[in-house]
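Structural prep section.
Before we set up the soaks we want a predicted structure of the protein with pyridoxal-5'-phosphate in place, mainly to decide which crystallisation condition to try first. Input record follows.
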Amino acid sequence: MIHSRSTETLKELDKNHLLHPATSIAQQQSDGPRIIGSGKGIRLRDTDGHELIDAIAGLWCVNVGYGREELADSMADAARTLGYYHSFSGMSNPPQIELAAALSAMAPGKLSRVFFGSSGSDANDTLMKIAWHYFALKGQPQKRKIISRMNAYHGTSISTASLTGLPAFHKAFHLPIDGVLHTDCPHFYRYGEPGEGERDYAKRMAAKLEAMILAEGPETVAGFIAEPIMGAGGVIAPPHGYFQEIQAVLKRHNVLMIADEVICGYGRLGEAFGSDVFGIEPDLMATAKGLTSDYFPLSAAFITDEIWDVLKQGSETYGSFYHGYTYSGHPVGAATALANLDIISRERLIENAAKVGAYLHQELQKLCEAHPNIGEVRGRGLLAGVQLIADKEKKTFFDPACKIPARIAEACYRKGLIVRPLPSVTTLAFSPPLIVTEADIDEILGRFEAGLNEILPS
Ligand SMILES: Cc1ncc(COP(=O)(O)O)c(C=O)c1O
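Run finished without errors. Recording the tokens verbatim:
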């Protein structure tokens, strides 16, 4: 029925009836939407007939690529067998049990228990509540503050928009809420001081975090949340030794480490989790996106046995663990995740992310050296950020108001490529599906260079 309507009619209906996420309403009303009709592999087709390479995999999530028959089949089979049943009051279903066991086996460090939701935001929100509950059960109910970082992105619910360190997500809503603080963004290229090495910079970041914890009172700080590599805030990878320095501070003050692996998890960086790459030992960990390659909305929030044991004691005081969603442990979502993880393992997509990711970074580095307006290339595996800069010698950054990343992304779209503009840091992001090949990367970068040179000629 939907496909029988003309594109023009669909655009009008969209303009008349939809409130889009993270979209200027004025722009939606003047330009109308772009409507994506279908996808196969790394390619999409919009309803105007343009073929596009999706170099960002939706929103950093369609890791096995579009149009995977096995995922469609497993979803259909699961829906036929058990379209839904809830997980409240001890109810369960076979797919979520299988998935929880599989995830516990692959999760980093001591993480061993899984709570299912349906978005990255709800996973982080769940973990924040668990951190509060954990310390309250240990007799420290005042230990509730969560420290995040400037430029972090952790979601858009009230708690997670607060954790997000991008002012644009706070401004209209009078956020952040009390009890959420932001320490420095660890962007060495931008904030490193002259003569300062990466390791010294990492030590300085850790010292600033410790000063914040001491100023607030360690007895009031429950957790520190971080993406292994920041995504929406600029694809900012940690400086050498950063998480080791940070974790030493957290241990000293009994503050929980919360890893937000919503983008990095399930292979994007060339290892199963970003925590494996950077030596993070999370007490709590949020995942979503790549868990099902977003064929179904599903999140998995992980905790350690130690936290679980404390929560278990809560049964005496509180009865139930009073948290959960109608969609928690959805059997169709869990079956989709199992099929998705099977594809990732069988097709060795994590190894592919490491190999083709290294090629992507090598080729972007060449472009960086050749182009006067690329200051640095950041990231790892199949996650890359290209920092645009007004003057490379003087390290003068573009004013974010110039909208250059959006103009380049627009030029790329016209050339058949989707890249993601990150305006707050004038960066363009790449995060293609993990099935991408070196030949695909050549095609992506050919289209990117053409779009880049249209706006910033080399
Ligand atoms: C690192 C990170 N955490 C959390 C989220 C929020 O996920 P969702 O949009 O599914 O709520 C995102 C979304 O992009 C993310 O990138």
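Observations: The pocket of pyridoxal-5'-phosphate is lined by residues 59, 119-121, 124, 153-155, 227, 231-232, 260, 262-263, 288 (CB under 6 Å).
Flagged for discussion at group meeting.
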